[in-house]
């Protein structure tokens, strides 16, 4: 392997898969290590010449040597809406990476909080990310030579079911019941694959020219090029579904009692439906409405709009 190896973990999920796809044409495959719970999903990447490893966030022994020989790691967040458990698993992965000699971590955070310099959010789902961001900063003081960049991946268009009580355009209901009236501030929706593409481009720029990399120790935010209110977003979903769909404002308790929400927001036996309603308060405070130009610059084009993305699903 060369003098600078780059790893992605987990490498087979939504953000990970998109990043892997766009890293391969940017860096030498033999310098890339893709780590996944199900490495069999990375057959094409193996054939391209990348190294594939197996590791599971939930397995301490997996993490112990998963990052051996890695110089730069793109650590994507643990897939959950939990707080304490999620933060713990991410911190364990960071510790394992540093023990293995990783000198730089790009951390895939989430796009709540508004502008990238913000360190606060009312969204429950953001708390583990904020904990991890703070932990990375602590690690730079405890481990001389270690550095990081936080990439707050914006709210991706394909995740709209989380904010619409799991509305399905192929079997549409006439009402979307949420604890929000649909008015602004809005959401700067962004296509998930473009988040991966932007992450790959940022990482590649760092690897190719580390001395001039301007985002060391900083938090960056990837967003779409404009905001849509929840009402405007639902109007687009209505168009896609070819049925009149309207928002029905309900209470937080009513939202939490909807069976589809209880089913989809349960992690490790705990129902997080009520906690999830904090995202709607975050929207009311404008936490999802900040438009940042960085992703457009990295892509070299305007990010794809919400309507185009959801129409193609």
Automatic annotation (TrEMBL):
<dbReference type="Pfam" id="PF05368">
    <property type="entry name" value="NmrA"/>
</dbReference>
<dbReference type="InterPro" id="IPR008030">
    <property type="entry name" value="NmrA-like"/>
</dbReference>
<feature type="domain" description="NmrA-like">
    <location>
        <begin position="3"/>
        <end position="264"/>
    </location>
</feature>
<protein>
    <submittedName>
        <fullName>NAD(P)-binding protein</fullName>
    </submittedName>
</protein>
<dbReference type="InterPro" id="IPR036291">
    <property type="entry name" value="NAD(P)-bd_dom_sf"/>
</dbReference>
<dbReference type="InterPro" id="IPR052718">
    <property type="entry name" value="NmrA-type_oxidoreductase"/>
</dbReference>
